[in-house]
């Protein structure tokens, strides 16, 4: 149930329509995991400001049409391989301000719609040379104020925001 409990209290996600698109606002609800039962036709999901530590491989399996996913300001340490792969319509993703050490870069292979990836303020130190090779020329990538960009490959990306970072290109 997503629209409200019988006693009137809000449940983990309160979907509503904005400009004709279904938006699930699950932000700042002290969630420990991605809630199950989100509508399959949801356009955008905000899980910002929760206490999520792990994104499991089946976390988003039923919301594959989502185009915007905001997971900033959680406690995410692990994103299991395959978690993001089904999100082929994903256009905008924010996983900044978490504790991510390893990111499942191979999940980006089918995310050809991805244009904005914000991942600053995490714990990543070195990025693989081909980490963003599947991103298109119009992509925007934010990586700063954390150790994640100490080694950064040259990329064909329109804009890279590297705030407060010393960057080395091997």
From TrEMBL:
Keywords annotated in UniProt: Leucine-rich repeat, Repeat
Xref: InterPro entries: Leu-rich_rpt, LRR_dom_sf, SLRP
PANTHER family: AGAP008170-PA, INSULIN-LIKE GROWTH FACTOR-BINDING PROTEIN COMPLEX ACID LABILE SUBUNIT
Protein name, per record: Uncharacterized protein
Domain of life: Eukaryota
Gene3D superfamilies per record: Ribonuclease Inhibitor
Source organism (scientific name): Salarias fasciatus
């Amino acid at each position: 149930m997503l629209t409200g409990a019988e006693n009137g209290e809000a449940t983990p996600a309160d979907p509503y329509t904005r400009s004709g698109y279904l938006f699930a606002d699950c932000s700042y609800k002290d969630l420990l995991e991605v809630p199950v039962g989100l509508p399959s036709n949801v356009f955008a999901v905000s899980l910002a400001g929760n206490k999520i530590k792990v994104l499991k491989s089946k976390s988003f399996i039923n919301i594959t049409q989502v185009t915007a996913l905001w997971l900033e300001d959680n406690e995410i340490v692990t994103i299991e391989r395959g978690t993001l792969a089904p999100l082929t319509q994903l256009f905008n993703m924010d996983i900044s301000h978490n504790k991510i050490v390893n990111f499942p870069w191979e999940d980006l292979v089918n995310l050809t719609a991805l244009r904005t990836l914000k991942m600053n303020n995490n714990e990543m130190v070195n990025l693989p040379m081909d980490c963003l090779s599947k991103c298109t020329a119009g992509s925007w990538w934010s990586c700063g104020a954390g150790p994640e960009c100490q080694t950064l490959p040259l990329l064909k990306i329109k804009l890279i925001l590297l705030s407060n970072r010393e960057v080395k290109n091997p």
